[in-house]
Amino acid sequence: MKILTSAFTVILSCLGLVVFEAEKKNNLNDIPSDIVVPKMIEGKPTAGKRVKHHWPEENNTAIHHALYLPENWNAKSKWPVIIEFAGNGGYKNNLGDVSLGTVEGCSLGYGITKGRNAIWACLPFVDSKNKQNATNWWGDADATVEYTLRSVKNICEQYQGDSENIILAGFSRGSIACSYIGLRNNEIAKLWKGLICHSHIDGVTKWPYKDSDKESALQRWQRLQGRAAFISHEISTQKAKEFLTTNKVLGDFTFMDLPFPNHSDKWVLKDLEERKKVQAWFEKIISTPSKGS
Asked: Which of 69, 95, 212, 281 could serve as a FRET partner for 158 with CA atoms 20 to 30 Å apart?
């Protein structure tokens, strides 16, 4: 009996090891990154550098964004632009995922463009009262809309951003912001050639802030007006797909499930088929002439 018990224990231990190894392989953080996001540094915008930047209107405040000009940037060409919003700060889970809610913590734009073929700007949620970036939820949503409009205009005028090729991207809170901020009114909605939303979308879940209800969200989504949106989520995009299709939101939607439970934007920094898919989507969108152009 003791021998059988010992053998059974060994078998269970082996099975446990197998299960542990399977879970380990299913953790995104155990996959090495082949792309490293440049650290945000002080200084003037320069090709191949990611700098802490602000506009003159924000002098003497802590409001700032992160601006990256691609390695081959020059003033003689027009460049696609990815505008990105970060997830909420103060988040971590038992898989090792962490979100600080800061502009320097963003990853999507750099991983999607491989740091080479687009201007990448991570913009803040503006806390007007405290004159700083909001690391949780929206701060002043209308002020963030104004800052975003001004940033896109300045990037196009000062750094040769292509106003016909601007993509809005975000993770978690930032993904919701693609609609909550990016489609908040007609003026800002018309900026985007497409959206990249990873993990959550506006309207699926009622959150603890004004106008997070389904009806308000659908008013914002109607401003997409048929344009492209790439929507991904850990494990399943089913809820997002049902929300958009059931409510007949007009858009050219691409849905992609990630085979990882991680709540993280770091998948774009790893050699995954899913990254190849979003990179191919981005290249297709920026290569397709805008309607009316």
From this structure: 281
For the chain, the domains span: 1-30, 36-287
**Of 254, 274, 244, whose CA–CA distance to 108 is shortest?**
274
> How many residues belong to the chain?
293
The set of residues, in sequence order, having a beta carbon less than 8 Å from that of 224 and lying 6+ positions away, is 179, 183, 189, 195, 249, 250, 251
From residue 174, alpha-carbon distances to 51, 90, 220, 272, 284 in Å are 20, 14, 15, 22, 23
* pTM summary value: 0.90
CA distances from 198 to 118, 215, 247 (A): 19, 22, 20
Instruction: Please give the single-letter amino acid code of residue 105.
Output: G
What fold characterizes domain 36-287?
Answer: Rossmann fold (3.40.50)
In tens, the pLDDT along 204-224 reads: 999 999 999 999 999 999 999
Cα 256 from Cα 90, distance rounded (Å): 27
Q: 215 φ, ψ to 5°? A: -65, -45
